[in-house]
Amino acid sequence: MTQRPPSFVVRAPTGTYRSLNPATKLATAAAEVVAAFFLGLWTGPVVVLVLVVLTAFVAGVARRLGVVAAVTIPIVASIMLINSLLYPGATDVIARIGPLAPSISGFLFGLQITIRLLAASLALGVAYLTTRTGDLLADLERRGFGRRASFIIGSAIETVPRTVTRAAEIVDAQRARGLDTEGRWWRRVRGIVPLAAPVVFGALTEVEERTMALEARAFSTPGPRTVIRTLPDSGRQRAVRWALLLGLVLLVGLRLTGHLAVVP
Questions:
Q1: Which of 80, 103, 121, 189 is the most exposed, fewest CB within 10 Å of its CB?
Q2: CB count, 10 Å around CB of 28?
Q3: pLDDT digits over 64-94, tens only?
Q4: CA separation for the pair 236, 239 (Å, rounded)
């Protein structure tokens, strides 16, 4: 008689939303992203954005989500500027400034795209901020994801925080060597090269070190791995995930076949 491998249940983070299974949070984020792009021109994105903000307050990550939103300011500004000034076929031009023709329709179109992108990115941001990377990878692997797919997802999630940490360490090291990183703007631009090169080479070195560490732990060994970490789940959450999946398939199918009218 074969014995089942030992397992233990990981204690979930505190909080109503934080304590949900990672698969439930991913399914919710996916549903919000699809709804933002497929459910109406304005109604879907605005409703999703409001739900995401309310979820962030409930989960206690509203301030950190605000930082994520602040990072998108350059992208948002470029979208609004380009569409407002260069919207093709606009008939409600406000004024003409050489080749530029700012229009109300271009401004509204840029605002629509901005709300959609914010709704989608912040929905994924809430799921990321409320889920530990180790819990997410363990749950994905337990559900049948291959170790390579889990490793790629984990590496993509951890790339930005590690890069930020490494960049801060390099800046401190270069300041100790006399590099001026707080002077006038041309001095800061001149200091990008000595900062960027160590960040890039450090990232490549880290990839090599992680690859060697994984191989030392038999990462390439054939056959499935035994996952002993079990995250809290419930029948209600599984029912919600299936309902979200069926709803997404139905929504996309109706839009692609033209049976769902585009609402404002």
A1: 189
A2: 21
A3: 888 778 877 888 888 888 888 877 777 777 8
A4: 5
**Beta strand residue intervals within the chain, DSSP E:** 8-9, 229-230
Nearest CA to 11 out of 215, 190, 232, 173 is that of 232
Contact assessment for residue 44 and residue 38, using Cβ atoms and an 8 Å cutoff: yes
| Closest among 134, 125, 133, 158 to 56, alpha carbons compared | 125
pTM above 0.85, yes or no: no
DSSP, collapsed to helix, strand or coil, labels residue 247 as helix
Residue 41, φ and ψ in degrees, nearest 5: -80, -40
Q: How many angstroms separate the CA atoms of 13 and 232, rounded?
A: 10
Provide CB contacts within 8 A for 162, sequence distance 6+.
Answer: 203, 206
Which residue type is seen at 34? Answer: V
- Cβ atoms within 10 Å of 255's Cβ, excluding its own: 16
Report the alpha-carbon distance of residue 177 to residue 43 in Å, rounded: 54
DSSP-based three-state secondary structure for 97:
strand
* Per-residue model confidence as pLDDT tens digits over 135-187: 888 887 777 777 777 777 777 667 666 776 777 777 777 777 776 666 666 66
Tokens of 94: 């406000």
Q: Are the C-beta atoms of 187 and 180 separated by less than 8 Å?
A: yes
* Cα–Cα distance, 57 to 177 (Å, whole number): 43
